[in-house]
Amino acid sequence: MKTTLLAVVTALSVTQAASADSSKSIKRELHAINQKLNLLGKISHTQVKMAPKPITQKQVHEAGGTLILTCPGDYCLEENICGTLVLDADSICLDLCCHTINAHEHPHAIIAHGHQGIKVFDGRIINSTNAAILVEDSSAVELFKLVLSDNAMDGIRITGSLDLNVHDVDSIGDARGERALWFDTCENITVNHVNASGYLSTLGAIVQLDSCNAALIQDVDVVNNTKSAAFGGSFDISTMFVSANACTGVDLVHVKVNNNTISTTGSPRFSGIGFIFSDSCTLNECQVNSNNIAANIDGELYRMVFIGRSSNFTITKCQANSNTGGVMLGDLRGFSPLDSSNLVFDGCQVNKNHTDASDPSANAGILGIFLQNTDVLPAEPNIIRNCQVNFNRIDDGGAGRIDTEGVIAGIIVQRSAIVDHCQSSNNSIGTADVIQYVEGLIAYGLPGATTSSVENVIISNCSFNNNTGGELGIGIVIDPFSSDGDVASIANITISNCSASSNGTYGISAGKFFQLPPDDSLLRNIEITDCICNKNGNGSLIPDAAGIFIDGVGVLTIEDTVSNILIKNCQVYDTASILSANGIRVRRANNVVIENSNVFNTTADGGQAHGILFDNVTNSKIIRTQVHGNQNNGVELVGDNSNIMILNSIAIDNDKGFSVARDSSLTAAIIQGNRALDNTSVGFEHATLSPQPFDTAYLNNYAQNNGVNYSISNYIQVVDYSIPTAVYTLEPNGATDFPTLANVSAT
Length: 747
Prior knowledge:
The chain is mainly beta and about 750 residues long. Among the domains are: about 1-50; about 60-145; about 635-745, no CATH class. The chain is about 5% helix and about 50% strand. The protein has three helices and 67 strands. Helix 1 (about 1-15) runs antiparallel to helix 2. It is elongated and about 120 Å long. The termini are far apart.
């Protein structure tokens, strides 16, 4: 064609040369024709360069079922084929042209080894006995627009390779197969828009990365698969749906592990997404939702997201919601880091998970975010912020429990942490019997460890409300929880601007409630400030309630065990129970300060209800605090208390304002500058009958419109006390020769 056009051009040039007047027109036409010729040449050259080489079934058959492509270039399938294609050259582009490669029970359908610039796309691959596509020691590989199904082991397996791009792939297990994607010792990986479904996996993770660096796994759906394994420990990849082992720089974005089934008869530890021995990774807007743990499994742990012995992770806006279990013999956990450090959880959810514990031998639990520590870790804190653990439920706690537990714990901290702007509310155990706990947040030492410590925990701007059921329903628990003879330390805990309300038993509990004596555990340096604890109680099997409960029960010596507790600017009201209720209860503790707080409307059906109760407390103070409308006493002291100061506080509309109970002692105390108004029985009461040393002073107090303003039992010795005879009440045979009394107002 080019020769013909040149002849035409030559003739035209000769004819038009005779006319000088038309020379400019001729030049313009010649220039236009030359441009068209150049373009035609380029098009022809491109067509020759890109012409794909056809692949037919006949070629594969003549090659003995394995066709080896040894020349670079473009190839295409002209029809469906059975057999294996080996890409044994650089720069091979294989277009399946919407056809199918049937491996026909060969190990692989496509193999590439030791090459670069490989592309495979636009078709279906089925029936391999190993991996449908195997790539080894290669680079610049792109696999896309593929459907992989009914392969016995893996959809795509890539080892020892870099610069990989896998996208727009559907990998279908057809109730067989182990993995959709497996990357081993690879670098610079991009996976985008991959679906993995229908696998019955027993060996590896469905999406698995081993010893990889720099991977972006984005918009991947692992749905409607079944994971079954006889046994697996925490670090067993065969029990994971998506895994990264010994990797760095792996980023998961919009990865969904939803609507899968966990089915086994062993004692496994399953994970929806599992990272182990990995560093500097992220999870962003990932989901592990609506998975089902088959009923009556004798299992251990079911972690929706597991991070084991890893560091430097950011987990953002991820979900572990609406997962279900049958009759559980283990824990369903949302986010479960183990011995991992420098973690950030931001905007994550563990909501509406549900399981059953109707078998009294079942140990059932739902744990939201569990910062678990079994090793000594660096001091930098983990961060949990803007997270939710709400509306989780265990049904049928079961009767007859003796040593098996059921527990829901929203956030669990076993090391340094910051918890900010989080919710852990409305969690419940249904018809539960004993040894059942529901906790919004718990910070505790490791049970059974020789030594363990949880220090430097900040909990701020959070809500832990309406956690109910079982023996205990508590908003926040701070507890050493060590085994007998071990040492556990809880120290430097700050709780500020939080709500712990409408919980079944306690709003905030700090102490060794779960620990039987004796032990050497320490609880010290706890600050509870600007918190609201209202309407706690009436929601558990224990007929007890407290807005704030500081507890050192079982401690053989008071000093240096539960100590240095500050409760400041808190609102504690409407605490209620059927037997015993206290707005703030402090038991066997040292150096406790309650300051600028309001404690009111504490009630109990047929029992005792006090605003503030000190029980065997030393070196402690109540300062500028109001107690009013409490069913029994505004401030009650029982047991042996010493070095107590009650200063500038107000008791209004209680049965008794300030009271030292009968058969109790108060030594080295100052009750000064307080007001007792409109209390039904007594304003100030000191009812102990045993002889007291001459070291307790009631100074500059004010009592008005109480049933009795001052009631002082015999043997009590006071300093600088003024009581008009009309309102001074003695027990029978009471002493009358008190020193000169002054600086006390009574009307």
